[in-house]
Amino acid sequence: MRIDIITLLPELLESPFRHSILKRAQEKGRLEVVVHDLRQFGLGKHHQLDDYAFGGGAGMVMMVEPIAQCIESLQAERRYDEVIYMSPDGDLFNQPMANRLSLKDNLILLCGHYKGVDERVREHFITMEISIGDYVLSGGELAAAVVVDAIGRLIPGVLNDESSALLDSFQDDLVAPPVYTRPADFRGWKVPEVLLSGNFPQIEEWRLEQSILRTRQRRPNLLDEE
Length: 226
Fold this sequence. Notes:
Blueprint: E1 2-7, H1 20-27, E2 32-37, E3 50-52, E4 60-62, H2 64-75, E5 82-92, H3 95-101, E6 106-111, H4 119-124, E7 128-131, H5 141-152, H6 163-166, E8 185-186, E9 189-190, H7 200-218, H8 220-224
Parallel strand pairs: 1-2, 1-6, 5-6, 5-7
Antiparallel strand pairs: 3-4, 8-9
């Protein structure tokens, strides 16, 4: 999979993709993340990327022309399954969406800034809009990093144990059950006996029960959506 990220601040995306799972995914050749500095497509000698909004009002707007040129230059090289705009009013990002996107070959993520992008970008280039939550960030870079991380770990061959991703929270509209490791007894705080029993069908039943209970306690909305 290849993911191209268009941004005003490429330095914000240097660290997230150089460590841990995403680093290994790229080293294995399973994932390619390419960050593009939109300023290379800026207008005039000052490489202008934003301007005042028609009709007045506070804040600047990212201009259509640099974004159009950047996206079209990428599309001239390969076919993209989705051109995604990271936006507060996009579809709320969740695990099923991450699952679907992990099956794609090529994605573009556009990071917004200021008061957003010229609406013509959204009308003529964007095929999908994603929000990571009902709040506003200074820019779309952190949101893009979240999306890439969630997608990248699902790509076959990225995780050492591929079944691990299938047991993550939200894969079955349930949060994950409690987990424990050694020692079995710490300060009198003991691991549930069922986990030490070696009876794996019974363990799986316990885990499912705990997932349902924890979802009911912490995220009842997930059960309401069934």
